[in-house]
Amino acid sequence: MEYNDVKQVLLDCADLAGLDESTQALLLWRAQQLTLSAGTAIYAEGAPIDDTFCLLLTGYLSIEHAGVVLGEISDRHIFGEMAYFTSLHSRTATVRVTSPEAVILRFKLTPAEFSSPPFSVLKRYLGLQAWHRFVSNSEILPFISNPPTSSSTSSPMTDRSEPPR
After folding, report:
1. pLDDT value, residue 53
2. Rounded-to-integer distance, Cα 79 and Cα 142, Å
3. CB-based contacts of 18: which residues, under 8 Å, 6+ apart?
4. Most confident stretch, 10-24, 92-106, 123-137
5. Is 100 helix (H, G, I), strand (E, B) or coil?
6. 23-49 pLDDT, tens per residue?
7. β 41-43/68-73 pair status
8. Are 15 and 79 in contact (CB under 8 A)?
9. Using alpha carbons only, how large is the chain's radius of gyration in Å?
10. pLDDT at residue 12, as a whole number
11. What domains sit in the chain, N to C, each tagged with a CATH number?
């Protein structure tokens, strides 16, 4: 994507809505655009934080926990930020490219930078989102531990109105 297109995506991204233009510019300076092919694992469950989180620009990604696909990201959302908020600072799920190709922005921020005044609004907002996803995903975790038998006709995965992130 061209610079102006990426900048517009940042401006339009609901996950970054609370940021002023100068903070968005600082964030963009810490971004690297990557084009990844199908099957590429962007983050691996249990891996230590590498001081990055991402924004999906195009393509589809799966979210996997313990080898089970929990959901999909198919539009312009932030992902990978939950590792900043876990006590072990590790990845809570595997994120994998499922489309033939995906384009992401990978932002690199150390925990100290993430907590600095320019990014405090971002940290607060993404922290609330991470908590919301943790709570909504905790409804699924008992299902993962005890998957339904083949005679089951429905599952929490197919009955959800929106996939977990």
Report:
1. 92
2. 23
3. 121, 122, 124, 125
4. 92-106
5. coil
6. 888 888 889 999 999 999 999 999 998
7. unpaired
8. no
9. 16
10. 80
11. 3-143 (2.60.120.10)
Extract the tokens encoding 150.
């083949």
What are the CA-CA distances from residue 39 to residues 87, 94, 165 (Å)? Answer: 29, 11, 18
Helix (H, G, I), strand (E, B) or coil at 162: coil
pLDDT in the model for residue 1: 72
In angstroms, how far is CA 74 from the centroid of its own chain? 11
Question: Where do we find the tokens 């297109």?
Answer: 5
Classified as helix, coil or strand, 48 is: strand
Q: Which strand (E) or helix (H) includes residue 125?
A: helix 120-138
Most confident range (mean pLDDT) of 43-52, 108-117, 134-143 is 43-52
CA-to-CA distance for 133 and 92, rounded, in angstroms? 11
CB 156 within 8 A of CB 143: yes
